[in-house]
Known about the structure:
Elements: H1 14-23, H2 30-40, E1 45-48, H3 55-69, E2 79-82, H4 86-99, E3 107-110, H5 116-123, E4 129-132, H6 134-142, E5 153-156, H7 159-164, H8 168-176, E6 183-188, H9 193-202, E7 207-210, E8 221-227, H10 233-241, E9 249-252, H11 256-268, E10 273-276, H12 282-294, E11 299-302, E12 317-320, H13 327-334, E13 344-350, H14 355-365, E14 370-372, H15 380-393, E15 409-410
Parallel strand pairs: 1-6, 1-7, 2-4, 2-5, 3-4, 5-6, 8-13, 8-14, 9-11, 9-12, 10-11, 12-13, 14-15
Helix pairs in contact: 2-3, 3-4, 6-8
Amino acid sequence: MDTETTFERLALIPQLLRALADEGYTTPSPIQRDAIPEALAGRDVLATAQTGTGKTAAFTLPMLQHLQETPARGKSLRALILTPTRELALQIQANLEAYGRHLPLKSTVVVGGVAAGPQISKLRRKPQILVATPGRLLDLMGQGEVRLDAIEIAVLDEADRMLDMGFIRDVRRIMAALPTKRQTFLASATLPKEITQLAHDMLNDPARIAVAPASTVADNIEQQVLFVEKANKRALLTEILKGRDVERAIVFTRTKHRANRVARDLVKNGISADAIHSNKSQGARQRALGDFDAGKVRVLVATDIVARGIDVDDITHVINFEIPNEPESYVHRIGRTARAGADGVAMSFCEEDELSYVRAIERLTGIKLASADDHRFHSDRIATMYADDIAVSTPTRNGNRQSAQDRPRRHPGKGQGKTGRQSSGETKSKSSGRGSTADRAPASSRRKGPRPEEASRSNTHRKGAKANGDTHSPAAPQTQSASGESTASKFGRGRRSTAR
């Protein structure tokens, strides 16, 4: 299809077109443009697309249309959407409510970490659509509160994240309870061999849709590395966030305790901030996300385990206070900015012990992060160590080696064309070991303490850890202020025209 396709040309029913118009969406994103016609035709779909490309609308719109146009057989559940995290489940539910506002269809959510009683009550009201995380769904199936024998459409969203968190065995148990005759939509940022096998087992002659190659980042994200001594990271972060150009930012740390400390430090310095991680209750996490989305909190400090659950527009900056030790996590992190056609900035604070992480990121993405050295806390020592190593060890994107003196140097936040950019997509997530009915974190990040995304059946502790579409023309980045105190750049905030 041509890039000028509109939602009207996708043969959507008037009620859905009205809802999209209510939301201000006019043009489908590439995955919506390609997947919706296939799904409306009744085909299974295997979609490879990063978070933020609009894949939620790609499967919810045809699902709503099918349920509206096809007579129901009784009052059983007719559609199931499986997601890896509570946050993503709640966001999908919000999308279903928005797109289905002019339809008589009902949907509900079941997730762990909260009491099951209210969720059971909603299930007994006979919704047509269920959005669920694997652990809680298996619990309710075991209690006889959920039957899946009449499901007509099944969606497995972020399948690679399911694999990463050890849910694949749970997913297979759930899928085995579904009717053989059904339509299935599988969405995954990457296709490791385990997901490829899962797709082979679940899908029947699927339409294959790939929005972007794996291991890439959005073209409209300015990526920067700031070399800084560990002791100066908090001061640098405060200086950047006090800049007027940082309108809304996410700061990533590797640990939950560090996230709490960083958030407290920012608040002490007069910056509105909150922390979100898997140790917090669902209510606390939802309040933090709600305050961040509403602009009550300007800075959200987060850990990787909830990175894909953050779906907030107009995030101007992502700051890696600690660089992830798995390069795939870097791509997931910075994908929180530059959404809905806007530009964004991704800054990574690099201390000496993190130099190897920067090199791993550059090897994965095939590009070099531009050095932003015009700030008060720049470490020439670490920058020199990096430049000396990069001159002999890191190839450029075309395979040629680049000397240290040829390496681009940048001021923090100052746009310099597309240095440090690449096309949209997400990266391969490492597989954890065996799955279980307990929703848990990747093995690589598992530590003693509360489980990450869902509570267990007894809520005990155990070991475990809106869419890109048309690109709008952003405002040009501002230069650094004369005082030299502002180290961040301002980017335009294009109005969303595509659906999630």
